[in-house]
Amino acid sequence: MNLSRILAVVLRQFFLIRGSPSRILPMFMWVMIDMILWGFITRYLNAFTNSGFDFVPALLGAVLLWDFLTRVMHGLTMAFFEDVWSRNFLNVFATPITISEYIAGLVLASITTSTLGLIVMVLIALGFGLSFFVFGLMFIPFLLVLFMCGIALGIVGISVVLRLGPAAEWFIWPVPAMLSPFVGVFYPLATLPIWMRAVSYALPPSYVFESMRSIVHGGRPSLLALAVSAGLALVYIVLAGWFFNRTYRYAVHVGLIARYSAETVS
Amino acid sequence: MSQTLRRHYHDCFSMNGEYVLSVDSLRKNYGDTVAVDNVSFHVKRKEIVGLLGPNGAGKTTTINMILGVLEPTSGTISIEAVDLASQRSRALSHTNFAAVYAPVPGNLTVYQNLRVFGMMYDVKSLTRRIEELLREFDLLKFRDTKCGVLSSGEQTRVCLAKAMLNSPCLLLLDEPTASLDPATARDIRTKIRQFAAQGSGGVLWTSHNMYEVQEVCDRVLFLSHGKILLEGDPKLLPEEHGKTTLEELFITVAREPLTLALE
Lengths: 266, 263
Known about the structure:
The structure holds 2 protein chains of 2 kinds.
Chain A: H1 3-18, H2 21-49, H3 55-85, H4 89-93, H5 99-127, H6 139-164, H7 169-172, H8 175-183, H9 194-200, H10 204-216, H11 223-254
Helix pairs in contact in A: 1-5, 2-3, 2-5, 3-5, 3-6, 6-10, 6-11, 10-11
Chain B: H1 3-14, E1 19-30, E2 33-44, E3 48-52, H2 59-66, E4 74-79, E5 82-83, H3 88-92, E6 95-99, H4 110-120, H5 126-136, H6 152-164, E7 170-174, H7 182-198, E8 202-206, H8 210-216, E9 219-224, E10 227-232, H9 237-240, H10 246-255, H11 257-261
Parallel strand pairs in B: 3-8, 3-9, 6-7, 7-8
Antiparallel strand pairs in B: 1-2, 1-4, 4-5, 9-10
């Protein structure tokens, strides 16, 4: 892989973000709103229930982790959409850049933007009294698994848009919201009906949120569950890469790269 | 000649082979429609080849296949003797292009676009190369201007600067002067001729301006219905086929290709 070509994708994203409030604000805005909203909800629940149970790590921690996954996915797809919106496919894919270099560039761009979002979320969470010592060192593998899932979802998302055309971006934005009921962000998987639980077991974030709840309730996280989730996330990244590569090859075969805005599928 | 360009020319010269581009038995089908039909041609070093033909003749399809963004149904393409199908990245590092339908992103400045694409082509001494191109294409005053607000002629100059970033051995130009005023178009033609004459690179050029083709191209290929119908020196071809001008010959190719095919 050629580092210069990978960094070109990241630099392009940096140039675009640097001079554009409409790109900078969404990186913080939604996570800020979510964290502030859930921060006050947890405060209210703590005061109202008076049960002694601390809702802050259970709910606010869950929101933080889930928003992080969403930011990672959106960071990757946004970097790709910049090429869609500026009709830049022909210019980019006629360069020597390889598919793995292009994806690596999108992932690096996503790491940068999602890290900024994470910092804002952590600061707000600290303001609401969320102590990351509750999770201990497990917080790092939690984040890593969710990061990998966000990347896999992002790659699948851009594959769909590459295949179906610019209008298909509508499908991509709500994907995390559609998955959230299955992964048990706010409730144990046992709450779900059996068929939903079957789906949950195939989704790595389910293991993360189950482990997180176990820690909050004073239990020990299952290292096996974490290993399974990391393994699953890795498999999904490989599958997503394979899917994008296949979609790209199809696009080159039928001439979609050169006539992308024609949306030939419709 | 700039230092970077001189070094690049040395690189091109050090390559083996007479041709910068070899296209052999190229074919592209879209279902039952044949867009390009068994086309073979080459571009030599220092040569400017015009790819002519009416709309829908298969010119852009051919160029897209050479750029690696469209897979041929059959046939082979070699750029600097590197097979495009099996060594895409290496083959494309020797080429670059400018086309009216592929402007650089309008939301980046001229400098930012040249920087990003220069990195994608892994251009060495990129900062110096960008400065050279900004001067050469009279873009210094637009350095920090977003490309989207430039006039179409200025945007074309940016695209051409982008196309020259890696001093390609094979330069593909799809109607590069279509939106330029006559004076700027003449300057651009001079630059392209210089590029071919001073270095070892070759140029594949499409244009609907027959005056321009006659002035610039060493050889032309007339495409019609995906096939090469005629090939030769643009200054001699009209007379060889009983026409007074290249434009007249072009119109015959567009309207009555069979009369030429039967000659």
